[in-house]
């Protein structure tokens, strides 16, 4: 009888172990290259990025996390001899991008030479940016929605902006209107998640825009449930602990102006139907609107910036659905008080930050960050854009985006908020 029980217990344990092996080893994207950013191999020298230390252990993990961590660690020695084909030097790619998208045609590219050895002390910048973020996350007197919840409290669908590259141990939280198209292109090249005639893309600008923003192209945290089931959160935590995590932000009001320009000043069928028609009806008293954006533009029917601000401030907007990602607050997209980011880049210093980050990740030999757009929306334009917006609305708008201003060290726009 005792032998039978032991046999049944052994079968159960072996089955569980085999399931875990399948989860870890046989997933086609999974953690096959998890070894790259563990304590055996760091993406940068100790202290290069504040908050990362060389040789850190798998400490303070719950039982299941600890078991999975050990299981993953056991594969390090096996994988350490695997050649990484992405480590070969890559050709820089064509000198000019193939531009087919209307938005990119309108903006154009800035191909001027940028000095990567800029005078900014990048390490000190990162220390300051992270210090500001952590201080306000820990400051009990500074509150905003969702601040106090834990990582486990974040719904799965809110983790859809965290893109994972298991080949190089990188997690990128993308923020629309903050160079996210090109950073997504970089992630596709690094992860080799998209092929062109059977060969992974090497030059980020060769990747068509429609593929860049296709959700099926990227492995994101919200997809983990389908892959790993009840182990998904445990694996997320392990990757958050061991991978290099970064995001890029920009002045919140300037980001709103940029979103308005690209989604409502250019002909965009989706945004016209989903957002422009309701705005024109609610805030401009238009009826019998054209069904297509080209007809509306031809008739001079466009959403004004004032309409857009009213829409953001209208309490009915959030009751109907969460903000669209192009104007949703960064703290709601990337959860900076729940996720300890290793690198915080800013659009205002994009060229310098991007070059420094790729160097820290040790992928600067593989690719270069695509060139900036010309005529990037400037913060100096804020006064003109908000000139016709009532002061009370500006103050309400600031409160709506205050957390993004404060957490990421952007000064309060006093000139817009005072008489």
TrEMBL record:
InterPro entries registered for this protein in UniProt: Carb_sulfotrans_8-10, Sulfotransferase
Q: Which organism is it from?
A: Cochlearius cochlearius (Boat-billed heron)
Q: What is its main location?
A: Golgi
Task: List the Gene Ontology MF annotations in alphabetical order.
Answer: sulfotransferase activity
Transmembrane ranges, per UniProt, are 7-26
Keywords on record = Carbohydrate metabolism, Glycoprotein, Golgi apparatus, Membrane, Signal-anchor, Transferase, Transmembrane, Transmembrane helix
* GO CC terms, sorted: Golgi membrane
Q: Does the keyword Membrane apply?
A: yes
Q: How does it sit in the membrane?
A: Single-pass type II membrane protein
State its Enzyme Commission number(s): 2.8.2.-
Similarity remark: Belongs to the sulfotransferase 2 family.
Its recorded name reads Carbohydrate sulfotransferase
């Amino acid at each position: 009888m005792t032998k039978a029980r032991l046999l049944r217990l052994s079968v159960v344990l072996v089955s569980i172990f085999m399931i875990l092996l399948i989860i870890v080893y046989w997933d086609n994207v999974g953690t096959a290259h998890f070894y790259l950013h563990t304590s055996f191999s760091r993406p940068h020298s100790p202290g290069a990025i504040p908050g990362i230390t060389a040789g850190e252990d798998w400490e303070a993990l719950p039982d299941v996390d600890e078991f999975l961590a050990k299981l993953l660690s056991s594969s390090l020695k096996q994988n350490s001899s695997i050649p990484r084909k992405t480590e070969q030097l890559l050709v820089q790619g064509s000198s000019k991008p193939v531009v087919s998208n209307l938005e990119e045609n309108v903006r154009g590219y800035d191909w001027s030479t940028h000095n990567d050895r800029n005078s900014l002390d990048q390490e000190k910048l990162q220390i300051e940016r992270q210090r500001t973020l952590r201080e306000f996350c820990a400051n009990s007197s500074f509150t905003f929605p969702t601040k106090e919840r834990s990582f486990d409290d974040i719904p799965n669908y809110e983790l859809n902006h965290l893109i994972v590259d298991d080949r190089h141990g990188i997690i990128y939280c993308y923020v629309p209107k903050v160079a996210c198209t090109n950073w997504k292109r970089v992630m596709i090249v690094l992860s080799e998640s998209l092929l062109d005639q059977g060969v992974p893309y090497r030059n980020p600008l060769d990747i068509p825009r429609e593929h860049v923003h296709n959700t099926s192209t990227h492995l994101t945290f919200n997809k983990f449930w389908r892959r790993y089931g009840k182990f998904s959160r445990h694996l997320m935590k392990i990757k958050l602990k061991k991978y290099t995590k970064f995001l890029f932000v920009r002045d919140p009001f300037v980001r709103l102006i940029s979103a308005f320009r690209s989604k409502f000043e250019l002909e965009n069928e989706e945004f016209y139907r989903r957002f422009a028609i309701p705005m024109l009806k609610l805030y401009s008293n238009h009826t019998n609107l054209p069904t297509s954006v080209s007809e509306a533009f031809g008739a001079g029917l466009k959403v004004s910036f004032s309409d857009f601000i009213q829409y953001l401030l209208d309490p009915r907007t959030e009751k109907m659905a969460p903000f669209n990602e192009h104007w949703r607050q960064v703290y709601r997209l990337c959860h900076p008080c729940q996720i300890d980011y290793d690198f915080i880049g800013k659009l205002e210093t994009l060229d310098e930050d991007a070059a420094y980050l790729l160097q820290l990740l040790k992928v600067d030999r593989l690719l270069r960050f695509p060139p900036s757009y010309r005529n990037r929306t400037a913060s100096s334009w804020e006064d003109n854009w908000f000139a016709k917006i009532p002061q009370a609305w500006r103050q309400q708008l600031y409160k709506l985006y205050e957390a993004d201003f404060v957490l990421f060290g952007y000064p309060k726009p006093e000139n817009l908020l005072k008489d």
